[in-house]
Amino acid sequence: MTLISRRTALALGLALLLPAVAGAADKPAYFPPAGEWTHKAPAELGMDPAALSAAIQYAQSHETERALDFSDQDKTFGQRLGSMPTRRAHTNGVVIYKGYVVAEFGDTHFVDPTYSVAKSMLSTVAGVAVREGRIGPLDEPVARRVNDGGYASQRNAQVTWKQHLQQETEWEGSLWGKNADFVGKEAFGAGERKPRTLAAPGTHYEYNDVRINRFALSLLRVFDKPVPEVFQEQVMDPIGASNTWKWVPYTNSYVELNGKLAPSVSGGTRWGGGMWIDSWDMARFGYLWLRGGQWNGRAILPASYVKDALTPSANGPDYGYLWWLNTKGKNLPGLPANAYAALGAGSNTIVVSPDHDLVVVWRWHAGNPAEFTKRVIEAIR
User: Fold this and answer.
1) N or C: more exposed end of the chain, with fewer CB within 10 A?
2) What distance in Å separates the CA atoms of residue 209 and residue 325, rounded to the nearest whole number?
3) Helix axis angle, 117-131 relative to 279-290, nearest 10°?
4) CB 252 within 8 A of CB 66
5) CA separation for the pair 327, 302 (Å, rounded)
6) What is the C-alpha separation between 12 and 16, in angstroms, rounded?
7) Which of 326, 354, 369, 351 is nearest to 23 (CA)?
8) Left, alpha or beta for 246 (phi > 0: left; psi -120 to 50: alpha)?
9) Residues 345 and 116 sit within 8 Å (Cβ to Cβ)
10) Which letter, b or e, does each residue of 126-140 get, where b requires 16 or more Cβ atoms within 10 Å of its Cβ?
11) How far, in Å, CA of 56 to CA of 372, rounded?
């Protein structure tokens, strides 16, 4: 590669990262301290207050049909393995523009399961593992660092960290009483699947919580401590999150670790448990990614990892490292190609639009989260 082409490549890489890392061009990005987040009037930041109000009204009028008491949980997902709350909040959310709170609605402090948003949080923990050298090249087989029997077969020995992150492992087996084949109505509810022949690892995408839970257990192994402890110490505490969130394990997802029982957590709340969190902590998490994995001068995640995490996989439906992307304009219709989202059932969502310096948290809603975000963007003048 010539000197000119190297400079060009570097410039292109920086161009991809700049919207996520930089705030306003004329001043450093604002980072909210723990326990507070500065609010600004929409007009002060060049937004149309009436248009933003209309966007909020839209969001409030599109609440999910999921049962308030979670009585539809087993029918939807199958026999549960972990606990569930007795009720959920109504739709609520937070809008962060240029780092500041410009809108909030509903009970944003209600701690609720956020379902598969937890997958994007597992991706973040994996980024910390890369930063600390606990994971080598992501194309490395997991079996080189994890020797607990989960990757002992010829098939599973081929599985890499990257394949886990892109949901392309085709890992075979059972974990915590659930088989990765997703066969059986009692075990998987409306999400049951027909038997199929497995493809080679790395050649087929399948959204599969059993395999994600295997990934979470593997992260526990390389850190030699429970994933929630890592997430708190290395991510949530540094970004000033509250102490109200909790990552709830299944009742049977405990392993022996250094002579004690340690919880292995899930990548969602499909079978109970999972990440229970309020909208404000979700907003901080989304804002960390908007800022390229950096928080007020501290590198929580390597910039290279964030860039790769937001790059589409070969076989997925515009999918990165457990983040939903929009490079084809289909997952988040009407939003920029570099917008991305953490999506959880219910729906519980975090949408990030680097082009607009925007994070939108919308919980317990109906419809595609892009519909609300588009209306927020229309308020930007």
Assistant:
1) N
2) 19
3) 50
4) no
5) 22
6) 6
7) 354
8) beta
9) yes
10) bbbbbbeebbeebee
11) 8
Residues in the chain: 381
1-58 residue pLDDT tens = 333 333 334 333 434 444 444 444 568 999 999 999 999 999 999 999 999 999 999 9
Neighbours of 243 (CB within 10 A): 10
Q: pLDDT of 182-240, one tens digit each?
A: 999 999 999 999 999 999 999 999 999 999 999 999 999 999 999 999 999 999 999 99
Q: SS in 3 state form for the chain?
A: CCHHHHHHHHHHHHHHHHHHHCCCCCCCCCCCCCCCCCECCHHHHCECHHHHHHHHHHHHCCECCCCCCCCCHHHHHCCCCCCCCCCCCCCEEEEEECCEEEEEECCCCCCEECCCHHHHHHHHHHHHHHHCCCCCCCCCEHHHCCCCCCCCCCCHHHCEHHHHHCCCCCCCCEECCEECCCCCHHHHHHHCCCCCCCCCCCCCCCCCHHHHHHHHHHHHHHHCCCHHHHHHHHHHCCCCCCCCCEEECCCCCEEEECCEEEECCCCCCECECEEEECHHHHHHHHHHHHCCCEECCEECCCHHHHHHHCCCCCCCCCECCCCEECCCCCCCCCCCCCCEEEEECCCEEEEEEHHHCEEEEEECECCCCHHHHHHHHHCEC
Here the tokens at position 103 are 């809108």
